[in-house]
Amino acid sequence: MSIPTISLNCASQEEIASSLREACINVGFFYLEDHSIPQNLLDNVFTQSEQLFALPMEQKLELSDSVLTRGYTRFGEETLDPINQVRGDTKEGYYIGDEVDVQHMDPKRLKGPNVWPTPSSCSMTDEKCRLFRDTMERYRGEAIRVCMELVRYFAISLTSANRTNPHLFDEYFSEPSTFIRLLHYSAEESAPSEGVYACGSHSDYGMLTLLLTDDNPGLQIQTKDGIWADVPPKKGAFVVNIGDMFERWTNGLFKSTIHRVITPKGAKERYSVPFFFEPNFDALVECLDSCCNKDNPAKYPPITAGQHLLNMYASTHADFTASSTKKT
């Protein structure tokens, strides 16, 4: 399977929208180039990530909040393919969500403060702690800008050619939910036949994922024929995929593709940074009018974006304890 490459700088809005539509119908993944996020910022995100994961384990464990799945998540904490995995993923992570002060904290809505490293919680200096936070907050702002640009191209792709509406989704993203996930994969060789994966096979939960990767391979997507195809790293480009929420919204027209990470023999440690971009917590996700008719009725019941995410976190995160997670 060939992963298409889409540039935000080399075509008209309609051509970009058409390319996105084709990629999401046929693959569900694409490379994104010319996104205008400075390379030095992307490099610094990796530098800060590596420094954080290099901390002693006891210090990293202090930087965690299981109620909101913020901060540090240990090796093996996440099991994304429980049917085939005999143990958790061979990766550790660090979640950074939308910043909300303690007074307005609401775990049922995934709202609350982030866990930031401080000199009192780890061996990083005050300057390094500030740089870590500043880098991640700057990156979040840039990633939101790119995601909103993509959302408007998606909107064009899902409205009629003679009545294009780039603002179709705007009302659902007035206060988007965003999550940066710093990931560090160990060099342990994966053994799929024995149920050991760097990251178990899964589809992403939400709307849209921007994946920043280092130079090490490992990401694979499942083709329509059930074959696992490699997604090689591409310097300066994001790997972008849509998630289950967008598949629901488009009535299955756009594909939320199953993917995994396999660490090959002799591989190095691997770092990646997925950025998850979701609608407002209370946004109602239901089939778009342009994606259904009497011969192709809605396949999925309506659900709020927030409840969808709560359901998925509860099913895949061993330490997740937020209440109000009924299945839908």
Automatic annotation (TrEMBL):
Family label: Belongs to the iron/ascorbate-dependent oxidoreductase family.
Claim: Iron-sulfur is one of the keywords in the record: no
Keywords, sorted A to Z: Iron, Metal-binding, Oxidoreductase
Gene3D superfamilies: B-lactam Antibiotic, Isopenicillin N Synthase, Chain
Name of the protein in question: Iron/ascorbate-dependent oxidoreductase family protein
Coiled coil: none
Domain Fe2OG dioxygenase residue range list: 176-279
GO molecular function: metal ion binding; oxidoreductase activity
Class of enzymatic activity (EC top level): oxidoreductase
Keyword 4Fe-4S applies: no
EC number: 1.14.-.-
Organism listed in the record: Skeletonema marinoi
